[in-house]
């Protein structure tokens, strides 16, 4: 059973997904601290000093691919657990994820309230 998440960082360039996920997360877990970033560089800056239990990271963003983001995370020594977020499951992405110990799985957009409940460890 996953450990309960109390702080979540969400990095995705899609602002509509931010709005939907923020509303769902507030309904599911009002006490959850959430940090949403549509710019991966701003997220990396925040993660240099901030901490969270889980990072949901979009694989494909125009400013920086999720894999490059993970490389930067490793350089700054941040070993946060990461769930990769994608629009479609590409077998190459699954293979690529094996290079990153902190990647614990993949999530397919759009995230449903049920999926969010599971990844937050609230489904018990």
TrEMBL record:
Pfam family, one: Response_reg
Domain Response regulatory: 7-124
SMART domains (alphabetical): REC
Domain of life: Bacteria
Keyword Phosphoprotein: yes
InterPro entries for the chain: Bact_response_regulator, CheY-like_superfamily, Sig_transdc_resp-reg_receiver
Name under which the protein is recorded: Response regulator
Post-translational modification 4-aspartylphosphate, affected residues: 58
Keyword terms, alphabetized: Phosphoprotein
Taxonomic lineage from the root: Bacteria, Pseudomonadati, Bacteroidota, Cytophagia, Cytophagales
SUPFAM superfamilies, per database record: CheY-like (SSF52172)
Entry keyword annotation includes Signal: no
One BP term from GO: phosphorelay signal transduction system
């Amino acid at each position: 059973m996953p450990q309960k998440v109390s702080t979540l960082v969400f990095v995705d360039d899609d602002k509509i997904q931010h709005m939907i996920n923020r509303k769902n997360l507030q309904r599911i877990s009002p006490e959850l601290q959430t940090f949403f970033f549509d710019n991966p560089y701003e997220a990396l800056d925040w993660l240099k000093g901030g901490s969270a239990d889980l990072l949901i990271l979009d694989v494909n963003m125009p400013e920086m691919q999720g894999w490059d983001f993970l490389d930067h995370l490793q350089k700054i020594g941040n070993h946060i657990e990461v769930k990769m977020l994608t629009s479609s499951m590409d077998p190459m992405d699954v293979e690529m994820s094996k290079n990153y110990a902190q990647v614990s799985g993949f999530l397919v957009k759009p995230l449903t309230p049920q999926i969010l409940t599971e990844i937050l460890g609230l489904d018990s």
